[in-house]
Here is the input.
Amino acid sequence: MKRLINLTPSRGGRWLLGLLPFLVVAMVYLSLSNARLAENPNDRLLPAPATMANTFYTMASEENQRTGQIVLWADTFASLERLLIGVAISALIGLSVGLINGGLPLIRAKFSPLVTVISLIPPMAILPILFIAFGTGEAAKIALIVIGVTPFLIRDLQGHALRLPDEQLIKAQTLGGNSWQVLTRVLLPQLTPRLLNATRLALGTAWLFLIAAEAIAAQEGLGYRIFLVRRYLSMDVILPYVAWITLLAFLLDQLLARTSRIAFPWYHAEEGDKP
Amino acid sequence: MSLLEAKRLEKHYGDHVVLERLDFRVEAGDFVTLVGASGCGKTTFLKMLLGTERISRGSLTLDQRPIPEEPGPDRGVVFQKYSVFPHLTVLGNVMIAEELSQSRWLGKSFGTARRQARDKAMARIEEVGLANALGKYPHELSGGMQQRLAIAQALMMRPRILLLDEPFGALDPGIRQDMHELILTLWKEQQLTIFMITHDLKEAFALGTRLWVFDKLRHDPQAPEAFGATITYDLPIGERQPPADLSARLSERGLKTLTQETLL
Ligand SMILES: Nc1ncnc2c1ncn2[C@@H]1O[C@H](COP(=O)(O)OP(=O)(O)OP(=O)(O)O)[C@@H](O)[C@H]1O
Ligand SMILES: [Mg+2]
Here is the structure.
């Protein structure tokens, strides 16, 4: 008998094992929902799967009479746009500041404490300031994501740059590289895959801030919808929306993971990532 | 005029004296092999030549001028590890040397320049026998292949001084022999000055024109870090074969036990 740490599931088994917890959760939900609905057919708290599917289908296919838009898609596009713009800005700032901080000790000495302090500010606490400064439009929501995510990215990338073996920087210099070349040809290419993976971790935070901002002030968006229908106790909307957001988050995460594995195989070999 | 000259050179890390009383002259074209017990400061010495470790006391001059305090293209290096760029393929790792000097801003070249860089790199890669691994990343290479890649890379710049830190430690005897020949050819062709650390005394004799033995002259059992290692022997090597009575000769000259344990 092998040791427990050496036992790995087979390919098919992996899927099955991964699916199992989901099945268990579904079963528990079904039995609870059935029990409540048997007691009171109009119960709204744990709607039957069929009810949820119906509602979701309606939201995904029927135009809203007032706006002429299909609610689900309008919400999804609005939210994704904010999320992606916010994350893209954060990634860009994170990469450039992380690169410069990690590569140039003179700049790191000046900026590193500032970044550390900024990263400790709870972003939600300054949301009112953002609304005052940027109005309640898109800018404030994007700014919240940027403020929430960027410090983490900067610190992660800066740390990674500092952890790269000095030998590589020295090597580049003995090959005639100047500071700029060492930054762009040695540090930058090695920070890029790190950025993809740090962004994966930061996406959860980005969703959190997106939904929070949408809940407080928005006209459309996944978070806005959920908080809107909460008043009517419409669990048949909320639950499918949560599942939908989870699916979107999962797809984004996988997209980044796959891109990173295909584009930067050496990075994953170095990190010792297992499939 | 000596190429390199050290006077009362010392290196400390805090209270820990690693190297002391280093006095030497090295002429252009010398091939110095360095041996000594593990942890006695050979790598530290190489780093001082490289300009990445500061000199604690004394002087170290290159062409009568204090050695630059940062690495430059005149001093090539192959480290014990981490010597190649993990994000570049074999070809990319060797080409980058040429590209960095061709294009000051991008560090990448295109068109004719790129083809030239490629051809030059290919020649080096063939010399070290990696021609069939061009597109592989370092993590797909064995330790020995990585080391050969590092040598090819270091030689692209045609440095005046080449610093090698146990470059062949991970190679099997056959390839090691090939690498010896390669290094000797390049050394003669390019009039290199080479410093090579090794744990293999045979190799040290086979390659070098001078053998330096690093060891402690003074030892305080109460404070093992109070005294550093120095060059205890500076042997000119005439013949290309290690003399048969080598170990006897070394111990006759009173070679310290530490070195004997690790070397002989
Ligand atoms: N950055 C550092 N800070 C403090 N002490 C150091 C540092 N680098 C090296 N040393 C010490 O200096 C001594 C010499 O180290 P060095 O790496 O030069 O040994 P070495 O002769 O190359 O050994 P090996 O043959 O095992 O490679 C060691 O005792 C080590 O503990
Ligand atoms: Mg060493």
Summary: The radius of gyration of chain A is 23 Å. Chain A touches chain B through 26 residues (CB under 8 Å). Chain A has a mean pLDDT of 91. Residues B 13, 16, 18, 36, 38-44 surround adenosine-5'-triphosphate (ligand 1) (CB under 6 Å).
